[in-house]
């Protein structure tokens, strides 16, 4: 009998072959810019223009990349699997939904959305946010990318924890497993679920998984799904 309740966690590695940098690999985002300068609430208070420029560039780049075979395989699973399925992505790109995934939660937010720090309204946002761009709801120039920075609370945690406690298969794809709380998901699923890691190379926490398969996501994920 196959699994009935599946949770899949994805990280930057699943989008690497689409042309998006990961964070911690050689040449990754955090080797080009210090995370303390762009991915904390304190950085945004200190230098909002710099933080907006960093996200404006990534938002523009996102328009030029496409989902790859790994995203497509997960979308196929979404369409065909008649048990409970939840894809939890740490990625702020929209490649899962562009591939067709529907049962999906973005725990670190979305590059394609803006949030007003004044009135809290969020909305789709695919162009640049300049320091003087007004919020369409309250007209205050207080927009920020709707992403989760260090020290901020990740999104949808109740629904994610509920799914993890009930799942019988947990699969982690393309993540270094260094950022919490996502790095702790394998422990939450262990004991009642089979846990599998699919990553370019074994992550630091690979020994916590029942199985760890090494290779590129575009090869491993379609093979795992089919
Ligand atoms: C391939 C591949 C290919 C390459 N195929 N694979 C407990 C202990 C210690 C610290 C903490 C803790 N709890 C919380 C913390 C603090 C902090 C944290 O975890 N720090 C650690 C660094 C230690 N966590 C937080 O602050 C989080 N908030 C929180 O916990 O709130 C609770 C709270 C709040 C307030 C008060 C009290 C409690 C928030 C974390 C937010 C992370 N945000 C970022 C930026 C998002 C926006 C943006 O994109 O700019 O999220 S940081 C960045 O890292 C991004 C990613 O989602 C995240 C994870 O990275 P990921 O996806 O794993 O990428 P990489 O590069 O690390 O790994 C890629 C992997 O892919 C590698 O292994 C490659 O080998 C592999 N790969 N090519 C397959 N082709």
TrEMBL record:
Chief localization class?
cytoplasm
The listed locations are:
Cytoplasm
Q: How is the cofactor bound?
A: Binds 1 zinc ion per subunit.
Question: Which Gene3D superfamilies does UniProt cross-reference here?
Answer: SIR2/SIRT2 'Small Domain (3.30.1600.10), TPP-binding domain (3.40.50.1220)
> Where is Zn(2+) bound in this sequence?
116, 119, 135, 138
Catalytic residues, per the record, are: 108 (proton acceptor)
Q: Which residues bind NAD(+)?
A: 90-93, 174-176, 199-201, 217
Q: Name one GO molecular function term.
A: protein-malonyllysine demalonylase activity
| Enzyme Commission no | 2.3.1.286
Annotated substrate binding lies at 55, 58
What's the family? Belongs to the sirtuin family. Class III subfamily.
Q: What does this protein do?
A: NAD-dependent lysine deacetylase and desuccinylase that specifically removes acetyl and succinyl groups on target proteins. Modulates the activities of several proteins which are inactive in their acylated form.
**Name of this chain's protein:** NAD-dependent protein deacylase
């Amino acid at each position: 009998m196959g699994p009935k309740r599946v949770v899949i966690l994805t990280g930057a590695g699943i989008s690497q072959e689409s042309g998006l940098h990961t964070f911690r690999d050689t040449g990754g985002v955090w080797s080009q810019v210090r995370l303390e300068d762009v991915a904390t609430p304190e950085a945004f208070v200190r230098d909002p223009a710099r933080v907006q420029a960093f996200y404006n560039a990534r938002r523009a780049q996102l328009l030029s990349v496409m989902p790859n075979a790994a995203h497509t395989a997960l979308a196929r699973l979404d369409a065909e699997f008649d048990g409970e399925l939840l894809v939890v992505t740490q990625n702020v790109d929209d490649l899962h939904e562009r591939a067709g995934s529907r049962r999906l939660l973005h725990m670190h937010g979305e590059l394609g959305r803006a949030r007003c720090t004044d009135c809290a309204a969020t909305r789709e946002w695919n162009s640049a946010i300049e320091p003087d761009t007004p919020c369409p709801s309250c007209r205050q120039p207080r927009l920020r990318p709707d992403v989760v920075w260090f020290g901020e609370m990740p999104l949808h945690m109740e629904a994610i924890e509920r799914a993890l406690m009930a799942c019988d298969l947990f699969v982690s794809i393309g993540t270094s497993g260094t950022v919490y709380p996502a790095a702790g998901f394998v422990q939450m699923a262990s004991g009642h679920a089979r846990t599998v890691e699919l990553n370019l190379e074994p992550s630091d926490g690979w020994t916590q998984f029942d199985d760890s398969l090494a290779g590129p996501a575009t090869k491993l994920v379609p093979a795992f799904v089919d």
